[in-house]
Design a protein that fits this description.
By secondary structure, the chain is mainly α. The chain has helices at about 10-15, 15-35, 40-60, 65-90, 95-100, 105-125, 130-140, 145-150, 155-170. The protein contains nine helices and no strands. The protein is globular.
C-alpha cells in the first residue's frame, strides 16, 4: 500500500477552487510551523503563510508541477520572515541572524516539514483504530493509557500498534532515506 500523491498543481492551474482549498488546508499548518522556525509571533506567521498561498493562487499559471509550487511557498515564507526580522530589528545578535538566514538552516527546516507531512499523511491513511493508536502513541501515551482512552484491552493496543507499524513501513518504504536527514 503506497501513499500516492497526485500533482494537484494542474487542477489548481485550471482554477479548481476545491482542489486549492484541499492544498491550502494541507500546507497552511505546515508552512505556519516552518515560519515559526524564524519568528515567534504566531499571528505574523499566519499572515505570512496566507500571503504566500494567496500569491501562489494569483500566480498559479506560472507553475508546471507541485515541486515548483512547494519550493515557491517555502522560499516566499522564509524571505518574508527574514524581512520581518530585519524590519523589526528583532535580532541584536548578528551571528544568530546569519545562522537562520543561511541556506542550510532553510534546507534542514524544509526537509523536516516535508518529512512531517509525509508521515502525517501515512498515519492518516491507516484504518481508524490503528490511526488513533499511533496518534496517541506519538502524543506520548503508554499502552495502558491508550487502552483506557479508547476502551480496549491493552493487548489489543499492542496488536494494533504492531499492525500499524508494519503498514507504515510498507507505506513509507520509499521515503526511508529521509530518516537520515532528520
Amino acid at each position: 500500500m503506497k501513499l500516492k500523491l497526485r500533482d494537484i498543481s494542474i487542477d489548481i492551474k485550471s482554477g479548481n477552487v476545491k482542489v486549492f482549498k484541499e492544498f491550502f488546508e494541507t500546507y497552511y499548518p505546515v508552512l505556519c510551523v516552518f515560519a515559526q522556525k524564524y519568528i515567534l509571533d504566531s499571528e505574523k506567521c499566519k499572515d505570512i503563510v496566507q500571503e504566500a498561498l494567496l500569491s501562489y493562487w494569483q500566480k498559479k499559471d506560472d507553475f508546471d508541477n507541485i515541486h515548483k509550487v512547494k519550493g515557491f511557498l517555502y522560499v516566499f515564507v522564509r524571505n518574508r520572515a527574514l524581512n520581518h526580522i530585519r524590519d523589526q530589528k528583532i535580532f541584536k545578535n548578528c551571528e544568530l541572524e546569519s545562522d537562520i538566514s543561511c541556506d542550510s538552516f532553510f534546507e534542514e527546516e524544509l526537509l523536516r516539514q516535508e518529512t512531517f507531512l509525509i508521515v502525517r499523511r501515512a498515519v492518516e491513511s491507516l484504518p481508524e483504530r490503528m490511526r488513533l493508536t499511533v496518534q496517541l502513541t506519538m502524543n506520548g501515551l503508554k499502552n495502558s493509557e491508550i487502552a483506557n482512552e479508547i476502551s480496549i484491552a491493552e493487548g489489543t493496543v499492542h496488536s494494533l500498534k504492531k499492525k500499524a507499524y508494519a503498514k507504515l513501513r510498507i507505506i513509507l518504504k520509499e521515503n526511508f532515506y529521509l530518516v537520515w536527514f532528520i
